[in-house]
Design a protein that fits this description.
Blueprint lengths: L1 H4 L11 H11 L6 E4 L4 E3 H17 L7 E5 L5 H12 L2 E4 L6 H11 L3 E5 L3 H8 L7 E5 L8 E2 H7 L14 E8 L5 E7 H13 L9 E4 L6 H14 L2 E3 L7 H11 L3 E4 L1 H9 L14 E4 L6 H11 L3 E6 L6 E4 L12 E2 L4 E5 L12 E6 L6 E2 L3 H7 E2 L2 E10 L5 E6 L4 E3 L2 E3 L1 H9 L4 E10 L5 E9 L7 H15 L7 E4 L13 H7 L1
Helix pairs in contact: 2-3, 2-4, 2-9, 3-4, 3-7, 5-6, 8-9, 11-12, 14-15
The structure holds 5'-O-[(S)-[(2-aminobenzoyl)oxy](hydroxy)phosphoryl]adenosine.
Length: about 525
């Protein structure tokens, strides 16, 4: 532990991350350098400083006070960093949210967080509109990147109307700066509170020390800024050294990603395994995936299959650094290293973090044996909002429990062995079997449903459903297609079962709990 701690940065008590990430770049003479480039606009460090001051003033003008929560439902455009850093400057707590959620999911989070304001991209407003009336705490709605209807304010206009003179809110390095919502096995998302110092801890420990990010780098993260992964990749890491991030507001299809690669020539690229697989499946992927400067790729969110990393190395010409991170720890804490990659392994603890693999009694297991990965480091969240029990179970003093099963190999490296619970990831997005089952059960044809993660032809997990049909329904193709569409529209587009198997009954315990492990074994 002492070794890990010796590389932690120290912070003054009076510390607001906006000074360290935004103002320090202007003071260092980078005012005219682009910090962010989206397909329509570039934002220099100088304008980010000015516009974040304007937004801080716009928040004040609208009665949004320090420690209020501000939800960000924003595509990756240059407006997103303005809103995020403007909030920190005002002492307001931004909560970047997944832009693929349903109206009900937004309603839950906005109520849970009691957000008093929101910035929403114009193209996402229609999803949010039906639930706005049911949210009395939410008083101010800014609409970015498009027209603002009655009752809403135009984000860019609000910036123009506000003063560019602003004093930065005095905050403490140990004070909550922003929240990120994490979905858990019980379904409801939980708000993880993160501190002002945590952004710089992850930027120094992983971005700078492991990846070696420098001022001359251009980074591109296909993982969006609303994920902890994307927030580090494309915001805190590049800004910590005065580098530039290319942003893609659209869905990261292989075509869209390769277009950015060709246009912006990033030196570091961040993706999730599904995207790497889709890009390799794309006919004629060029060397560097289109970028003439690509030196490093990073993968996280789910385990990177060994063959995928090896194939990428051969065809694209750069390594993929696989590392495991979590919303609770903010970023990656166990990873491979540039120049020392073992495909199929998660690698070693990032210097500054300690990791151990423990049995249910909390004692470390012997090398080679599977146990739960438990991690310690300076970027751990300070807890879940209004979730005492779950906070105590996950953030146990110095140690954070990951719910991931791991084993340490003969080579000393950490190997991922699946989730300790039943959750799994598709394209970097969580799938809770419970969610998909609930969606299936809401269809009139379905009597019972159980969902597990099953490997597709590329070794990546996708949902597979086992269902029992109500009487009078047969397993025809039309019904199967209808069920998939039903899950897509009610639970989320990435959650639909790629395979559906109709059974006479589901395996259950004596107490009536579905035995998913049996279904996983049956495939
Ligand atoms: C799984 C991995 C195997 C694992 C994240 C980088 O994914 C991130 O955060 P989430 O809260 O999910 C955390 C869980 O995802 N996982 C992530 N990376 C890997 N499993 N190999 C990996 N390389 O179950 C973990 O507990 O969405 C990733 C940086 C910041 C993040 N928040």
């Amino acid at each position: 532990m002492d070794d890990a701690k010796s590389v932690w940065a120290s912070f003054p008590r009076d510390y607001n991350a906006v000074s360290d990430f935004v103002d320090s770049n202007v003071e260092a003479g980078r005012g005219a350098k682009p910090a962010f480039i989206d397909p329509a606009n570039a934002l220099t460090y100088g304008s980010l400083q000015e516009r974040s001051k304007r937004f801080a003033n716009a928040l004040k003008k609208n009665g949004v006070e320090p420690e209020h929560r501000l939800a960000l439902i924003m595509l990756d455009t240059v407006a997103m960093p303005v809103a995020f850093w403007g909030a920190l400057r005002a002492g307001v707590i931004p909560i970047p949210l997944n832009t693929l959620l349903t109206a009900e999911q937004y309603a839950y989070i906005l109520q849970d967080s009691r957000a008093t304001s929101v910035v929403v991209s114009a193209s996402l407003l229609a999803t949010l509109e039906p639930v706005l009336k049911a949210l009395p705490a939410l008083r101010t709605i800014f609409v970015s990147d498009g027209d603002a209807p009655d009752g809403c304010q135009h984000f860019e206009q609000a910036l123009d109307d506000a003063s560019s003179e602003c004093e930065t809110a005095q905050t403490c390095c140990d004070e909550t700066a922003f929240w990120l919502y994490s979905s858990g096995s019980t379904g409801k998302p939980k708000g993880v509170k993160h501190l002002h110092a945590s952004l710089m801890h992850t930027a120094k420990l992983f971005g700078q020390s492991v990846l070696g990010i420098e001022e001359s780098d251009v980074v591109f993260s296909a993982a969006k800024l609303f994920f902890a992964y994307g927030l580090g990749n494309a915001m805190s890491f590049p800004m910590s050294v005065g580098a530039t991030a290319a942003l893609l507001p659209a869905r990261p299809t292989p075509e869209a990603v390769m277009e950015v690669m060709a246009r912006q020539n990033p030196s570091i690229f961040f993706g999730v395994p599904t995207l790497y697989a889709a890009m390799l499946a794309h006919p004629g992927i060029p060397s560097g995936a289109g970028s003439s400067k690509l030196r490093l790729c990073v993968s996280a969110g789910e385990a990177l299959p060994k063959e995928l990393g090896e194939q990428w190395r051969t065809q694209v010409g750069s390594d993929i650094i696989d590392g495991i991170g979590s919303t609770e720890m903010l970023h990656i804490f166990v990873s491979n290293r540039p120049g020392n990659v073992t495909y199929g392994a998660s690698g070693l603890p990032v210097p500054g973090y300690a990791a151990k693999i423990v049995a249910p009694d909390g004692e470390p297991v012997a090398d080679g044996e599977i146990g739960e990965l438990v991690v310690s480091g300076p970027s751990a969240g300070e807890g879940y909002w209004n979730q005492r029990e779950k906070t105590r179970a996950t953030f146990a003093g110095e140690w954070t429990y990951t719910s991931d099963n791991y084993r340490r190999g003969d080579d000393g490296l950490f190997y991922y062995c699946g989730r300790a619970d039943d959750m799994f990831k598709v394209s970097g997005n969580w799938v809770s079997p419970f969610d998909v089952e609930s969606a299936l059960l809401s269809h009139q044809a379905v009597l019972e449903a159980a969902v597990v993660g099953k490997e597709d032809g590329e070794g990546l997990l996708k949902p597979k459903a086992f269902i029992v049909l109500n009487q009078g329904y047969g397993d025809g193709q039309e019904l199967m297609d209808d069920l998939k569409a039903h899950v897509k529209s009610t639970a989320g587009p990435w959650k639909y079962p790629r395979w559906i198997e109709v059974m006479d009954e589901l395996p259950k315990t004596a107490t009536g709990k579905i035995q998913r492990f049996k279904l996983r074994q049956a495939g």
